[in-house]
Amino acid sequence: MQPSPGQVAPAGEGATSGEFFLPDLCAPRLVFIMVLLVELMVLVYALSASGLPNFNWEVLALCSLFVQWVVLLSAAALCRLRRVISSFSLPLASLCCLLVVLLVTAVSSVAAWHLLPIFDRGSGEAWWLLRNLLVAAVLGGIVLRYFYLQQQLLIQKQLELQARLDSLRSKIRPHFLFNTLNSIASLIVSRPEEAERAVEDLAELLRVSLAEMQRPTLVADELRLCELYLAIEQLRLGDRLQVDWDVDPGLRATPMPSLILQPLVENAVYHGVAQLPGGGRVRVSVQREAGGVLAVVENPAPDKSMRTGGHRMALENIRQRLAVMFGGQGQLRIVQGDGRFRVELRYPWGEMA
After folding, report:
1. Is residue 178 part of a domain?
2. Whether pLDDT at 13 is above 60
3. Pick from 16, 71, 2, 17: which is nearest to 39 by CA?
4. Total domain count for the chain?
5. For residues 224 and 23, what is the distance between their CA atoms, to the nearest angstrom?
6. What is the full DSSP assignment across 46-74?
7. CA-wise closest residue to 243 among 255, 228, 256, 259
C-alpha cells in the first residue's frame, strides 16, 4: 500500500513506498528550465574558450546543438523509463538514471565526432568520448543529487505542514464535542427518546469526522457533518432553528479542507441563533467562483454575542489553516452589521492534495 505524499519512504525503497525523487522531465516548465540552464553553461564554455574580442559564434552554435541534443534526449529517455525505474531501490534507480545519461552521451558523442568537424580531432575519438562521458557523469550525478535533496526537502515540508494541520484540527474537535454533548444533556430529562436519537447522530457524526483522515475530504463530506450537527441542535432548539441551503450540486465532489465548514455552522448556531429568544435562520452557501470555491455561513447576531473567546478562537483557527494550506489564496472574511453575522471562506481550485 502506498503511503500519503507526506510520508517518507525508508532508505532503499523505491517509488512504490513513496514519491520517486526524479521529477517528470517531460513537463514543459521543467524542459524550458533545462534548456535555459544548459544554454547558459554552453555560453560560459564558449566565452572561456574564445574570449570576448574574438568570440567564436560557430563554437557556441555547434556546442549548443550538441549539448542540447544530449540533455533533451536524456530527459526524454528518463521520462519514458521513469515508471520502470521508480520500482527499483534508490541506489539502483540512481545508477540506472546515470547509465541512461552516459549511454545517450556516448551515442551522441560518436555521432557528433563524425558529423560535426569543428570539434578538435587532435586528441582522437577515444579521448573525446572519454571526456564527454566524464563531464556527463559529474554533471548527471550533481543533478540527480539535487533532485533527491529537493524531494527530501519537499517531504519535510509536507510533514511539517501535516503536523501543523493536525494540531489545528485537534483544537477544533474538543470544542465541537463539548457543545454537542451540552445539547444532548439538555434533552435527557425532558425528551429522553430524542436524546437517544441525538446520541446516535453524534456517533455517526464522530465516525464521519474521524473518517476524513483516511482520504481527502470533499464538499459533500463537510456538508454531511453540518447536517448531522444541525440535526442534533434542532432537537434542542426545535422551530427556533431554521436552515437554508444553497449548494452548487457540481461542487459536492470538490475537495474541501476537513472540519472547516462545520465550525462556522456551529458558531452560527451556538453564538447566534441559540442566543435569541425567537431563534433565527442560518444560511449555508457553497458556490463556485472564478478560480476557486466560496463558502458562506450567515446568521442573526445578538448584540455583543460575537465577542466570546470561543467564537474568535474558532475563526482564528480556520484562518490559520487556510494560510498554511493555501497561503494568500485562502481567505476568511467577516462581515457584521444590521443584526447579521456573515463569514465568507474562499480557497482556490486544485490546490489540495
Report:
1. no
2. no
3. 71
4. 2
5. 38
6. HHHHHTTTT--HHHHHHHHHHHHHHHHHH
7. 228
Give Cα separations from 104 to 110, 111, 127, 153, 326 (angstroms): 10, 11, 17, 30, 41
Query: Is 193 found in the same domain as 306?
Result: yes
Alpha-helix runs per DSSP H in 218-261: 219-237
Q: Three cell numbers at 156? A: 519535510
* pLDDT tens-digit readout, 28-85: 888 888 889 888 888 888 887 777 777 878 778 888 888 888 989 998 999 888 888 8
CB 177 within 8 A of CB 205: no
CA pair distance 134, 126, nearest whole angstrom: 12
* 72 domain residue, yes or no: yes
Structural domain includes residue 169: no
Give the three cell numbers for residue 277: 429568544
Dihedral, 185, 180, 336, 246 alpha carbons, nearest 10: -120
Pairing of strands 241-247, 292-300: unpaired
In a domain, 252, yes or no: yes
Whole-number Å distance between alpha carbons of 270 and 314? 12
- Which CA distances in Å does 270 have to 174, 177, 183, 187, 208? 15, 13, 10, 16, 21
Burial track 57-73 (b if 16+ CB lie within 10 A, e otherwise)? eebbebbbebbeebbbb
CA distance 59 to 172: 65
Spatial contact of 220 and 240, defined as CB atoms under 8 Å apart: no
Looking at the chain, the whole-number percentage of residues with pLDDT higher than 70 is 80
